[in-house]
Amino acid sequence: MTDKVIKKTKPSEPSALGKLYLLSYNVIQTIGWFYLLWQSLVHFLNRGTLATYWDEVKWTIIIFQNAAILEVVHAALRLVPSGVMVVLMQVYSRVFLVCGVLLTTQGAPSSPGLPLCVLAWSITEIVRYGYYALNLINSVPQSLLFLRYSTFLVLYPLGITGELLCMYHALDEIASEKLFTILMPNTWNFVFNYYYFLIFYMLLYIPLFPVLFGHMLKQRNKMLSKDIKKQV
């Protein structure tokens, strides 16, 4: 019997046009999230309030957060090596918060959770998209690599806290107005209560947080240890 050698195939790199597109996408996203952070700093330094904050940053958040849906398409077209389901899960939670909570209620936008979300999201995305852009041209500095796999230690719990606060402040309004709620009787014989769905969704953060945080810790150890070996 002869031994068969199985070679692991590396994911194919995108074409030159694909790289140019991804570079443009990541640079635009970096600028967009930096602008959001700048908007927020200016707003609060000028003694702006939570009551007027959402009106200030709303369209920037809508545009650049929902633009992340394109990353699911990137994965599906294999422009990036990430799996479609992994990317979908990463993108879904924020898009849901923006479209399903912030845009549909008045309580969530005035929650103290919103500036926490924006602070965590904007710094995370400035680092992440900046890293992706420079990685496409093989020019990632060690400091950016460190930030890419270290800032989540503080920003991920901060962002989760902000998201939960936004949803919590939306609950009373959703319950009183029966927002997105389908009651019997109806043609489809189907019942859906958005209030209870949102509570269930919030409770999912309890088991999922340690799993996702643990995964990111493993990625951090892997990438930073690889970088240390390169320097030796």
How is this structure best described in words?
- With 232 residues, this protein is mostly helical.
- 72% of the residues lie in helices and 0% in strands.
- It contains 9 helices and no strands.
- It has helices spanning 16-45, 50-66, 70-76, 84-102, 113-136, 142-148, 152-177, 194-203, 205-231.
- Helix 5 packs across helix 7 (152-177).
- It is globular and about 60 Å long.
- Residues 1-9 have low confidence and may be disordered.
Give the overall shape, derived from the CA principal axes: globular
Q: N- to C-terminal separation?
A: 41 Å
Subunit arrangement of the protein: single chain
Largest sheet, described in full? Answer: none
SS-based structural class? mainly alpha
Runs in which pLDDT lies below 50 for 5 or more consecutive residues are 1-9
Approximate strand percentage:
under 5%
User: How many alpha or pi helices?
Assistant: 9
DSSP E strands, number: 0
Supply Rg.
21 Å
Report the order of strands and helices.
HHHHHHHHH
Q: Which labels suit this protein?
A:
232 residues; 9 helices; disordered N terminus; mainly alpha; globular; 72% helix
Question: What's this entry about, in short?
Answer:
The chain is built from nine helices and no strands. It has helices at 16-45, 50-66, 70-76, 84-102, 113-136, 142-148, 152-177, 194-203, 205-231.
